[in-house]
Design goal:
single chain; about 190 residues; alpha+beta; two-stranded antiparallel sheet; 6 helices
Length: about 190
Amino acid sequence: MEVKAELRYAKISAFKVREVTREIQGLPAEQALEIVRLIPKKAARLIGKVLASAIANAENNNNKENKTLRVENLIIKQAVAGEGPTLKRMHTRARGSGSSVRKRTAHIKITLTEAEPVEKTVKAKGIKKDKAKPSPKTSPKPVASKQAEVESPAAPALVAPEPDPSQLRAEAADSTSKSLAAGEHPEKVTAAK
């Protein structure tokens, strides 16, 4: 079921109102109302009034067979800002001339619809499922894990793995090589000798 609320001839440009309506499109009504309250714009204040009116319409006006729409289930289906009539005024200018001033108006329309309620699955308290214990024949423990449990009953310490012998040879070659110190240039070294 859809619920509508509209504000006509609001003294604000529709371009300014559309900035705020884009932000709340498709959000839950309560969340959109909180967002609109935090936006520091005139358009947000006007949209907040229309949104509050739409929520009130949903709660009070739709009592078909004593079925009211719940605020928690309402979602903004459509938030539209259309242009209203433009008021043409004059602004005086130099040498007796004048320029036109266009005072724009807007029509703000918000449509709410009821979303599908999300069913929450609640587990019954106090009921425990019996977990089947694995038999020793079907899932034997590895032998290595039993030895590790016997050796260290406390938490295992971190042990660094042993490096490969090829890495050890490379380190030994680096320490015996005649490498230059940082910042030395090979031509300067040969010239100094």
